[in-house]
Amino acid sequence: MSAAKKIKVTLVRGVPRTRGDHRATVRGLGLKWTNHTVELVDTPSVRGRITKVAYLVKVAE
Questions:
Q1: 1 domain residue, yes or no
Q2: How high is the pLDDT of residue 1?
Q3: What is the CB neighbour count within 10 angstroms for residue 53?
Q4: Stretch 26-53: mean pLDDT, rounded?
Q5: Sheet holding 6-11, edge to edge
Q6: What is d(CA 49, CA 25) in angstroms, rounded to the nearest whole number?
Q7: What is the Cα–Cα distance from 37 to 51, expressed in whole angstroms?
Q8: What is the Cα–Cα distance from 41 to 7, expressed in whole angstroms?
Q9: Which pairs count as long-range contacts for 43-52, CB under 8 Å and 24+ apart, including other chains?
Q10: Which of 7, 9, 28, 58 has the largest count of CB atoms under 10 Å?
Q11: Which domain holds residue 24?
Q12: What is the CATH number of the domain that holds 18?
């Protein structure tokens, strides 16, 4: 079995003045504060969450 592809997601903007569902999506990705980076498995559901909050995050392959 091959290792799952990973992507690094960084929160580049603060979330206080964003919509509630966008704040929840950021927390669902595991991001807690500005410039926080997490490594996630590259799945369609994760990609969909990233697309929803694309203006708040930066993605590195």
A1: no
A2: 52
A3: 23
A4: 97
A5: 37-41, 6-11, 57-60
A6: 6
A7: 16
A8: 6
A9: 46/7, 49/25, 50/9, 52/22, 52/25
A10: 9
A11: 6-60
A12: 3.30.1390.20
Specify the 3-state DSSP secondary structure of 8.
strand
For the entire predicted model, the pTM comes to 0.90
Give percent of the chain above pLDDT 70: 97
Beta bridge partners of 11: 57
User: d(Cα 29, Cα 10) in Å, to the nearest integer?
Assistant: 10
pLDDT in the model for residue 3? 81
CA distance 26 to 59: 13
The per-residue pLDDT for range 3-32, each reduced to its tens digit, is 889 999 999 999 999 999 999 999 999 999
Answer yes or no: is 12 within a domain. yes
| Tally of domains in the chain | 1
